[in-house]
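For this section, I looked closely at the sequence of one protein beside the tokens encoding its backbone, which the following lines show:
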Amino acid sequence: MSRILTVLILIIALCLSCANPGSGPDGGPYDETPPRILAMTPAIGTTQAKAKKVTISFDEYIKIENASEKIIVSPPQIEMPEIKTQGKRISVALLDTLQPNTTYTIDFSDAITDATEGNPLGNFTYYFATGEQLDTMEVSGHVLAAEDLEPVKGILVGLHRDTTDTALLRRAFDRVARTDAAGHFCIKGVAPGNYRIYALNDMDGDFRLSPGERMAFTSRTITPSSFPDLRFDTLWTDTVHYDTICAVPFTHYLPDDVVLLAFTETRTDRYLLKTQRDVPEWWRAYFTAPSPSGHVPEVRGLNFDATDAFLEQRSERGDTITYWLRSLDRFPEPDTLRMTYTYECFDDSIAQHVLRTDTLELIPRHTLAKRLKDQEDALAKWEKKREKRHRRGDYSDETPPVEPLKITGPAPSRLTPDQNLTLGFEEPLVRLDTAAFHLFLQQDSLLHPIPGRLRPRPGDLLNFTLQGEWRPGCRYQLLVDSAAATGLSGKTSLPLKFDFSVPRTEELGSLFLLLPDIDSAAVVQLLQKDGKALRQLTVKNGRADFFYLKPGTYYLRLFRDPNGNGQWDTGCYADGLQPEQVYYFPAPIEVRANWDIEQTWRTDEMPLTKQKPAELMKQKADKKKTARSRNAERERMKR
């Protein structure tokens, strides 16, 4: 009996333990080992290879992450290779014809991980040769954006044995690689010899430069070489104490410091991209480039008289033209403009610019009829509200609403002594009463009139600058009378009151830059934390002095300006012209109130790849893949 009872107790205990999964085994340790290669067909490093399909077998199920971005085959393949994962195998089928006496590399980067835990294999490159010899040289470096030294991710970098300038236009690269998030590249399997190197955002997949593609080039000839070298690895006993420093021999490949500055050429071939008309008062023409000869497009009205019918405003580059209708009353059909438009355009067949005439019919998205209907609806709503007020005996508001001319700004509300106010209008003006603008100095609650000048900005129909002599530590007020401005549409401005002040000198700081290695034209830009230029100065006699700075954190960028136009200019491959060189001061500048900072800046003291401050970097480096220490995490959880 006791034996039966004992058996029943054991059965019950076993059932209870099975019903409570939390108290049972935890399934064993997690897999933290990367996948291991068991076999490769053909074997890695095979010479005189004929097979166009490569198979790699692993000891566990694997997966490939971002194959199109991370895996690169060199020489480049015009027809994309077929890359497949099948359980524990990866197969790569090359569809292009194999080139004779050529080393092929398939750079998997860190794309291979195990399928369950995501443990990375690590950077892995498979290689074979169709000839008797394997080429093992490497060329590495970085690609940066020429305009702001931002690392360029995912751009193609290629080598040409043909060192003539036209090779990039005529034939595909001999060897290629792709940059990572840090802009770094490494071209492997390079044969001894002389090369030209390029970067190319190859949008059409032909591995040659096409119009509009971002690129980088250098006149430097690349000659790969190598030498035996040592690197020193540290073995740590814990996070604080090291155990041993080991000297590890390796082959050092050169060059490993190539820096390519990527840019997009300014388009010179001119096409009409589109026309746009959002409202009845204007229409706009967008071109790919300004007119190379300075030709002014001609408008001939088909249902209106185009003589002196428009005010024209060009963008800063001259590739966009806005046509403001001087008066809607002059147009019999203001909601439909029919015209012929003659402009300078690039003719692909003869490869030169010619005059072209298009027939246009422009209808605004928000028509005049729709606007009048909206105004009628708004007036009806106002009249209903007025009737309700009258029932309450309220006769305070008897003026129907009228849409005013909007004034944007003024800005800013806190000026430094060397700044001025900006006022903008939503449309060009037909009348501006400068006497209706009153500027006052506020002292002891009293307003003292002071002189000010309201001036249009050159080439700008919408914005004006209010200039004055601003005194540190003073407060000002701008009063604008009603109907001070009238726009093309007949709308008039409302009265405006704007208060602003100028800080005391003690509340501001100054930055004096000494630039001993700048011996030609250059421009220094003072940047905010978002990377936007707050001010810029032309370097004179090796100096750039910024006065009246508000306390805060600033950054510095400099570009050489050989043409003296005060703006950064891109390069031109056909002319062998590099983009204007850009530099960054590698650390933030802290400006304090009532403090003068003198800073010496040698622009070439630090490599370009390390100059741009991390706070301004938009392209962050990829997170390095490592095996997850889940077993250690579980042990910590148990404690």
About this structure: Helices lie at 2-19, 67-70, 167-170, 368-391, 630-638.
